[in-house]
């Protein structure tokens, strides 16, 4: 018994005594067939299948692999199973201690199990509510990808006729009437970077309440319509992205602002160069002061 001194080992614990009793009962038939001088040995075994030669002690180190080859015991990769006898110990439960899992790329899976065993025996089937929640997350992600792929609605002329002729699919999908289109052209539905077709639609917040999205989120919103009067704010937003690029690590910047910066370049490429030149002169170098930012979002 591990961890016991010589004096303590005189009195074996009950599980050890029970194990010895079971072994003596199991090997009684073999002990009856050996010479009297060898019956006092504790560990007796037959040397091999089909033989009557009795040996003492543990089998040689290759006996386990012979048994594996004879019975064709396969591992998870299809090859023969390799039995490591140094791992078959009474400390097996200690090996399963999950405190050693930290930092492992398979931290969510028991390292004593293959992924196939985990999937076959330990992964639970989701409930209908959980499955519905997962489907909702997948649908939202797909809708987000579709919104990013939708071309931006950039007007070259602030007129109702231009919107009606150039973007009939946008008018049909949003259900815009003449009054709403007139408000979009007049600037009554303007946010910072675009004109919003419906600020109460709830694309980025609860339905029926004003949209709480940040100024750059409108760049990927299908409700956004970009008119020539928004060129100045779009240039200010591009300057904000440039300052954030200089202050943030590249990976963090691409995760937070990457899609919006790409869409901003696409929107500005659709503007007339003369409009951008005039907007750049009017915008000046005001920094972040003219952008509706939170205190923690402003550049230092």
Topology:
Layout: H1 14-26, H2 28-31, E1 44-46, E2 54-56, H3 63-71, H4 92-95, H5 115-121, H6 128-149, E3 153-154, H7 160-166, H8 168-174, H9 178-186, E4 195-196, E5 224-226, H10 231-247, H11 250-256, H12 258-269, H13 273-283
Parallel strand pairs: 3-5
Antiparallel strand pairs: 1-2, 4-5
Helix pairs in contact: 10-12, 10-13
Q: Care to describe what's here?
A:
The model has no long low-confidence stretch (mean pLDDT 76). Helix content is 43%, strand content 4%. By secondary structure, it is mainly alpha-helical. Strand 1 and strand 2 form a beta hairpin. It has 13 helices and five strands. The strands form two sheets. The protein has a three-stranded mixed sheet, with no helix packed on it. A two-stranded antiparallel ribbon has the order 1-2. It has a domain of 145 residues. Helix 10 packs antiparallel against helix 12. The two termini are 66 Å apart. It is rod-shaped and about 110 Å long.
């Amino acid at each position: 018994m591990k961890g016991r001194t010589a004096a303590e080992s005189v009195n074996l614990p009950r599980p050890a005594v029970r194990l010895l009793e079971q072994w003596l009962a199991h090997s009684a038939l073999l002990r009856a067939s050996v010479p009297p001088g060898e019956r006092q040995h504790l560990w007796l075994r037959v040397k091999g299948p089909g033989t009557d030669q009795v040996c003492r002690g543990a089998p040689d180190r290759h006996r386990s692999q012979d048994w594996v080859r004879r019975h064709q015991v396969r591992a998870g990769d299809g090859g023969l199973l390799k039995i490591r006898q140094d791992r078959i110990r009474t400390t097996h439960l200690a090996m399963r201690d999950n405190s050693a899992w930290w930092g492992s790329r398979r931290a969510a899976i028991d390292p004593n199990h293959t992924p196939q065993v985990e999937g076959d025996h330990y992964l639970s089937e989701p409930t209908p509510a959980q499955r519905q929640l997962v489907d909702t997350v997948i649908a939202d992600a797909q809708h987000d990808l579709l919104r990013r792929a939708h071309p931006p609605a950039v007007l070259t002329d602030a007129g109702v006729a231009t919107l009606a002729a150039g973007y009939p699919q946008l008018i049909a999908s949003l259900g815009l009437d003449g009054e709403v289109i007139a408000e979009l052209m007049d600037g009554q539905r303007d946010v910072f970077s675009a004109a919003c077709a419906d600020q109460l639609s709830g694309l980025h917040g609860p339905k029926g309440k004003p949209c709480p999205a940040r100024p750059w989120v409108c760049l990927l919103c299908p409700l956004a319509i970009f008119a020539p009067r928004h060129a100045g704010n779009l240039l200010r937003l591009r300057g904000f992205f440039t300052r954030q690029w200089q202050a943030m690590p590249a990976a963090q910047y691409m995760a937070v602002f990457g899609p919006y910066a790409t869409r901003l370049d696409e929107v500005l490429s659709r503007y007339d160069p003369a409009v951008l030149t005039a907007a750049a002169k009017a915008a000046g170098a005001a920094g972040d002061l003219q952008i509706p930012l939170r205190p923690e979002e402003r550049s230092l």
